[in-house]
Amino acid sequence: IPEGFHPILPEGIVDSETNSANCPSLRDTFLLMANLSQEEGTVSELCKLIDGYFDEHLMDCKAFISSIESLLCNVTDSCSAAVFASVLYWLCVDEIKKPCEIEYKKMSERIALGGTLGLAKTCIEKMIDDPERLSLLLANWSSLGIYDGQYLPLMGYIKNKICVVDMVVPHSLISVVQYAAVDLLRDSEPVKKCSNCGKFFSPRVRSDEIYCNSCKSVSYERKIQSDAILSAYRKIYKTQNARKARNGHIPGISEGFDRWVRFAKVKVKECQQGIISIEEMTEAISDAGWMRRKY
Fold it and tell me: For residues 32 and 212, is the Cβ–Cβ distance under 8 A?
């Protein structure tokens, strides 16, 4: 949904409290599904949650979404989790309402959760490796009539300009995968694998980004922390070097200083690895014991 977009109709698409569209992009859901396929423990818990919830015929949408959000808090942001939970909820509700020729014991099997997560991962790997191969796969799906989402153009306006936004109502998880994959290919939006955590993400600012949003924050914090560590080391190094200069008359002072440098670098590395705190490092390397052959 473009920023500042206000849908005209139909009722229910607009959130009355925020006056914003209630139809977020399925791209983030697609990426989340692919990343979830690599989290076996979380997927197992997700299946249990879905099966247990609908076995008891509970229909509280907010409670269901809240449960999914709590489960996925370590995998994705709350917004993406809420969108994915909404998709799951309404797919499950639709499955309960319509007759089913095959008897499924579990709701997670009925909506083909596990298999579709793996399919999303396969699609993204093909997208990164060779977009043309994915195009052929999607074309094959289309020819087989696999896609069963409903396309609904949503009319609205941005400021005083009328515009139309593509919207899709998925009737199965595979339709989420297919629509989102086509959407990404059509717009040539890159999908990448995070260099730190290995999760898939779509760069939002620069096409050469190598970290997902979560790891970007972690990387920035580590850089700041590393800078603070090196800054503390440099300050103490100058102090110790000045001590060496003032005590040049002491036999073996230069060798002692060299031993301190090696010791200090070990402590700096331990601090950068999180083994000791910056306070502990500072205390350890500030000592003047190296002048008395302590190290």
Answer: no
Residue range 228-283, pLDDT digits in tens: 888 888 889 989 999 988 888 888 888 899 999 999 999 999 998 889 999 999 99
What distances in angstroms separate CA 173 from CA 45, 84, 170, 177, one per listed residue?
18, 10, 7, 7
The two three-digit tokens of residue 137, written as one number: 């796969």
What three-state secondary structure class fits 120?
A: helix
Residue at token pair 């015929």 = 57
Which amino acid would we find at residue 126?
Answer: K
Tokens representing 180?
A: 């989102």
**Helix/strand/coil for 291:** helix
Per DSSP, helices labelled H in the chain are 27-36, 40-55, 61-71, 78-97, 107-110, 113-129, 131-143, 173-186, 213-246, 253-272, 278-286
Q: Is 284 left (phi over 0), alpha (psi -120 to 50) or beta?
A: alpha
Residue type, 26: L
> What are the tokens at 226?
């590393």
Query: Dihedral angle at the C-alpha atoms of 65, 70, 75, 76, nearest 10 degrees?
Result: 50
The C-alpha angle with vertex 77 and arms to 275 and 20, in degrees rounded to 5, equals: 150
Convert 202-220 to b/e letters by CB count within 10 Å (16 or more is b).
Answer: bbeeeeebebbebbbeeee
Q: Are 168 and 14 in contact (CB under 8 A)?
A: no
